[in-house]
Specification:
Elements (H helix, E strand, L loop, with lengths): L10 H6 L2 E4 L2 E4 L4 H10 L6 H20 L5 H9 L2 E8 L2 E8 L4 H17 L3 E3 L8 E3 L12 H23 L1
Helix pairs in contact: 2-3, 3-4, 3-5
The structure holds zinc ion.
Zinc ion binds next to loops.
């Protein structure tokens, strides 16, 4: 099972970030069935991996599409995932309870897509892709001033600065 380069984001981004680039190749964490099981339990789901895998792949593709091309036609794909569940409201002991009812295996995918909509509503401008041109990871910028650019300062931030420095040195050398 490969090691994910970045964790700790809200659920929809945790799902999208199960794909990343390594040395120019796209890595898919979910190619490994055990990894899907690990992702589910880390995110508090008890669904069986074998039921949840395909819905998760569908939700992940729809979410990445929506994030990569905000004005594209991803809404229909997101709604197709949401069609697999609904929220039931009930009053119990005087307080309102929301219960999600989802088709077998669809709860994790449904939850990720519904939380994506909530995240955008709350903080659209702070959901961003890492600024490194070769990185496809997304993050929710919770920094105070909202100027975070990298999924990680230690990897992508440092890599970008090193490359910029290298280019500067090269173009200076070329001038002489
Ligand atoms: Zn990055």
């Amino acid at each position: 099972m490969p090691t994910r380069p970045h964790q700790g984001e809200p659920l929809p981004l945790e799902l999208v970030n199960t794909e990343w680039m390594s040395r120019g190749e796209r890595v898919d964490f979910f190619e490994d069935d055990a990894a899907v099981g690990q992702w589910l339990s880390e995110n508090g789901f008890t669904d069986r991996m074998s039921d949840a895998r395909l819905p998760l792949l569908e939700a992940r593709a729809a979410l990445r599409d929506a994030l990569d091309r905000p004005t594209g036609g991803a809404e229909a794909r997101l709604n197709a995932v949401l069609d697999h569940g609904s929220v039931r409201l009930q009053i119990r002991a005087g307080s309102l309870e929301r219960r999600v009812e989802a088709d077998p295996g669809w709860l994790p995918a449904w939850t990720a897509v519904s939380q994506y909509a909530e995240l955008l509503e709350m903080d659209r401008d702070r959901v961003r892709q890492c600024a490194h041109p070769e990185c496809v990871l997304y993050f929710h910028d919770t920094s105070r001033n909202g100027t975070r650019r990298w999924h990680s300062m230690e990897t992508c931030g440092a890599r970008f600065k090193a490359q910029r420095h290298y280019r500067r040195v090269q173009s200076r050398d070329a001038a002489f």
